[in-house]
Here is the input.
Amino acid sequence: MSSDTEHSMGYIENRPFDEIEIGDFAELERTLTPQDIDAFAVVSGDVNPAHVDAEFAQDDIFHKVIAHGMWGGALISNVLGTQLPGPGTIYLDQSLKFLKPVGIGDTVTVRVTVVEKQLEKKHLTLDCQCTNGDGKPVITGKAVVIAPDRKIRRPRIIMPDLLLHRRGAAYDRLLAQAQALPPLPTAIVHPCDAKSLEAALETRDLGLIQPLLVGPEDRIRATARENDLDIGDLPVFDTEHSHASADKAVELVRDGKARAIMKGALHTDEIMSAVVAKSGGLRTERRMSHVYVMDVPTYPKPLIITDAAINITPDLQTKADMVQNAIDLARATGIEAPKVAILSAVETITPRLQSTVDAAALCKMADRGQITGGVLDGPLAFDNAISMRAAEIKGINSPVAGQADILVAPDLEAGNMISKQLMYLAGAEAAGIVLGAQVPIMLTSRADDSRTRIASAAIAVLFCNSVPT
Here is the structure.
């Protein structure tokens, strides 16, 4: 049904000076949320801990996080600029007195009332009051504005959505969990560049690993000197070249001296060749696979994706191992019963599309106890896996659809593209490790930043402490 109210909601309209009388008023109501505080802090740059640090605020004068005072001032400006007088208003002066704090969950009513008109200059003086839910004033003041002299009615501008995301928040939780555990003896393979040594030292200083440096000793120590890195009395296992470094790292694992491997300045295929060697490698009965733990700004929880780096065209048994590796990692990070979405292009089983048949078989394998610890569903298209709205539109009734913890790609190309698109188009951060060997392998890249390397180490620590030694 159409109405004047519905029509006016699409427009913003002012009240010119000649239409305004003393005593006229306008108001709005707003309930303070944590997102309001975060948004105001981001825009203003005001990160006073009284507003953004709950631990600090608990011991501060009000014993809780409170709104920035000018958040209320901005609401007054909102009423003046959009309602009374509205579009065309020019601010001249504003006085404010802050009487009480506004806390999260408080509902504030903002009211501006015309108390004086100056005909010659078309000035208005307005009394401004913000009151809380019990009617007590929290802000009072006066505003002086130049009112518009003509009627203005414009389409209401639809503002862009504001996405608030604390970069690294998901990884901070993993880091805190890992730091409560003993540091992990880790073979750093061929750390002959600054990035590799820095990663080893930083993760050591955070209490995550005990680095065992494996590579040409002269080159390692020269790199340390040139980059002012103190490797102190860290053990160095001298090798001739990168291939030998990979072999030595595997040997340290087999001898029980290392419980994890971190890639340094060598190619991934060099280290993986040593790991997968049939004689002297680190194979287990399970197929190895790469697992990303991604912090995606537009998704409400960490998202695990497999496989984007190891298995090119996995068969059914390989996919079963990929799923189990991902479930084991998810459980190690604290997800008790991870929801696993087996991805395909469609959500129906189609014999001509092998990925849908594999998805159905994997779900049945889980039913029969061949895959344990998670809740599986598939085939699911990507949108159905991560969007409740998409799943509802398609009529999919599933404990996984729209809320997946783990996405299992049908092949490496799809997994790699999904991961890279989330990184470069959605601003996701990705920390990953290889599982299925006797120990986790951190395949860090020269392009990885410090937070990614730390998160990868934290994930490895959590995983190692979740399985029997």
Remarks:
- Confidence is low (pLDDT under 50) at residues 1-8.
- The chain has two domains: 4-155, 169-464.
